[in-house]
Design goal:
This protein is of the alpha/beta class. The protein contains 11 helices and 13 strands. The chain has 3 domains: 64 residues, Beta Barrel (OB fold (Dihydrolipoamide Acetyltransferase, E2P)), CATH 2.40.50.140; 164 residues, 3-Layer(aba) Sandwich (Rossmann fold), CATH 3.40.50.300; 59 residues, Ribonucleotide Reductase Protein R1, domain 1 (Orthogonal Bundle), CATH 1.10.40. The longest helix has 29 residues. The structure holds guanosine-5'-triphosphate (GTP), magnesium ion and zinc ion (ZN). The site of zinc ion has 8 residues, from α10.
Amino acid sequence: MKQRDKKKGQPKAERLSAIKLPDLDVLDETREQAAFKALRSAHKQHDLYKEGTQLVRGRIAEIKSNYNYVVEVGGVYHRASLSGRLKQFSYSSQALSAVGDVVELDISNFPDYRIENILPRKTTLSRYAGGSFQKEIILAANIEQVIITSSWKMPLVKFGLIDRYLCITALEGLKAVIVINKVDLCEDGEERDELAERVAYYEDAGYSVILSSVVSGAGMSALKDTLQNKDSVFSGQSGTGKSSLINWLEPHLNLPTAEVSDYNEKGKHTTTQSILIPWSFGGHLLDTPGIKTVNLHRDAKPEISRIFPGFDRWAPNCKFRDCSHTHEASCAVQEALEKDMLPVERYESYLRIRDSL
Ligand SMILES: Nc1nc2c(ncn2[C@@H]2O[C@H](COP(=O)(O)OP(=O)(O)OP(=O)(O)O)[C@@H](O)[C@H]2O)c(=O)[nH]1
Ligand SMILES: [Mg+2]
Ligand SMILES: [Zn+2]
């Protein structure tokens, strides 16, 4: 008799009872055994890996391709690959490794150095891919401050982008410094006044703003003071002068920068890989490729009303603790807007960030 016919002929109850349930006691035993086995093999693996290996602490300085890394150990750079164990994870997680990660490097098999462990990150600067999956893209790991690099002109400063960065750094607990570079291109008179007015908003909100130029040298000593003995990442649009600022402070690095004649508003994307380099005056720098924008994670939406740059001066006085500053009565942020204390551009930038999430 065919299988199908047999089934058809059986009443429902009988069919159900025919399903063989596993003996639960046996199942528990198997589970315990599996856990025990996993534990034993982990111990074994650890011992194995302790015996043959020679581990040193280092930091990922550059990721050349999926498995091709540069690791800095005490100021010396080594080529390295990922251990087989870690490679396994890198298929499922793009965020497995990032420039700035602290790693354990096995140097027993020269010149075939292998990253055996990636240590938990203290901080990350991340942006999120658009679309529903919002994949995390880590721009830098284990850094203390973000140098939000913009240029007054060429390309034109985007304060909306600065606001996004400031939200991200606030969420991550990172210090943020706003650099407006190429101020040599800002003309005296009305244009200067506009620059001063824009800057005042952020300074009044408690941020440090550095107006810089590698042409005139303006702001460069203030920038150096800010960077000394800290690990900082330079991030911002392409063409704003991230690599130029770093070269000015550390000429021997000679990082590639765009030719002036190559100028276009979108930038040339001259820097293509993030790199971590020590400053001669203490601390590290992370130069990164230019980005068009940074997206926040959608889960951050309820926080934006609290952490948007400058809002902490007013939001605590809103009637409702979870005020979104859009339609609520007795909203201190909207009052500040009416009294011209909050510029309308900043409020619109707030709404745009909210709507994007
Ligand atoms: N006028 C003026 N031009 C500058 C200044 N800083 C940088 N530039 C020019 O701006 C262009 C872009 O500079 P880069 O240092 O390559 O910019 P970047 O931010 O590293 O760009 P990506 O690597 O593409 O992200 C170059 O032609 C620099 O010479 C400045 O302070 N004033
Ligand atoms: Mg660059
Ligand atoms: Zn409010």
